[in-house]
Design brief:
Helix content is about 45%, strand content about 10%. The protein is built from 13 helices and nine strands. The chain has helices spanning about 5-10, 35-45, 60-65, 90-115, 125-130, 145-170, 180-185, 205-220, 235, 260-270, 290-305, 315, 330-350, and strands at about 75-80, 80-85, 115-125, 130-135, 170-180, 220-225, 245, 275-280, 315-320. The longest helix has 26 residues, at about 145-170.
Amino acid sequence: MPDTGGDDEAAVPPARWADGAATGVGSLPGTDPREAAATVVGELPLLPHLPELPARGVGADMIGRTAGLLVDIPVEVVPTGYRVAARPGRDHRRAVDLLRGDLDAFDEACELARPGWVKVQAAGPWTLAAAVELHSGHRVLTDAGAVREFTASLLDGLRAHVAEVAARTGAHVLVQLDEPTLPAVLAGALPTASGYGTVPAVGRVEAQDALRDLVSALEVPVVVHCCADRPPVRLLAGTGAAGVGIDATRPVFSGETALPAALDALGEVWDAGTPLLLGLVPTREPAARPQLRDLARPAFDLADRLGFDRSRLGVLALPTPTCGLAGAAPEWARRAMALVRDLGQAFVDPPEDW
C-alpha cells in the first residue's frame, strides 16, 4: 500500500477513491495487454481498472478469468461451457497464464503513473455458480453445498489476487463483483441441463447473505455491479458494498420510461451515502459525435428527480461506459474512457448552463 505520511496515518487507508474519478467496467477490445493497460492508466488516471480482453478466447472471458482465480477448484472447457475438472489442465493453466500476463502489463503501466487506487473485476458468486457446470452437467447453482464451496474458493482466490495487485502497483484496491445473471437466478429463469425445465429460484435473503459475507470477508472496498435491465438495487446495496453499479441509460432508470420504484431504490442508496457506478457512455460509437452534456443528462436528471444537488455527483456517482466495450472499435473504446473521465470532472464542478 502507498505511504500516506506518518506511522499512524500509514496504517489507515483512505476511505475511498478521489472525488471526480471515473473508471471502466472491465472488458476492452483487442488482444494486447500492454496496449490495453497503457490506455486505461492514461485515460482513467484516478481509478484505472485491470483490463479484461475476452477476444483472446478461453480463460480471458469473465467466467474463465474468474474460474482461474478459484483455489483448489479447477475448471475445463466442454461443449456446453465451463465445467469443474478433476485436476488442473490446459484450460486452467491458460486462464492463470493470461491473468499473470495482464498483471505484468498493468504493473508496468502503473509504474510511472502511480495511481492511488486501482480496480479489479471478477464474476460474483451467483453469476459464477450459474455459468459453471458440475461433473454431472448441472449448474453449480443447483447444489447448495457446491455454491458454498465455490464462494469460499472465490474468496480465497480474490484475497490472494488483491494482495498481489496491491503489492505490484502500490495502490489501494477496489474489487468489483459482476453479477449480470443475478436477476435470472432470483427469478428462477435459468434453464436446466436438459432444457426442459428451469433451475429453482434462489431466495433474495440467501443471495444477499452470500454476497454480504463475501464483501465483508474481503476486507477491502467492494462494489457490486449488475448491468441487467432491472438490477436488484436494494439487494445489492444491502450487502455492505462500497458502491452499486448499474447501466444508468436503461429505460427503467432514464427518461420518461423511468419507474418510480426503481428511482426510489437509487435514492435510498444515495441517502445512505453509497456511490453509484453509472454506466453512461455507450459501448458502440453513435452515428453523431456525442456531446458531454448529453451523456451526463441521465446522471443530472437522476440527481434532480431524487432531490440531490448536482454538485454532489462528484461524491455520489462514478461514471463508467456501459457494459460490452469489448465489442467496440479500439478507437471508440479509448474515446469512451476519455469521455467518462471528462464526466467525472464535470460531476465535481457542473457547468451552470447544463
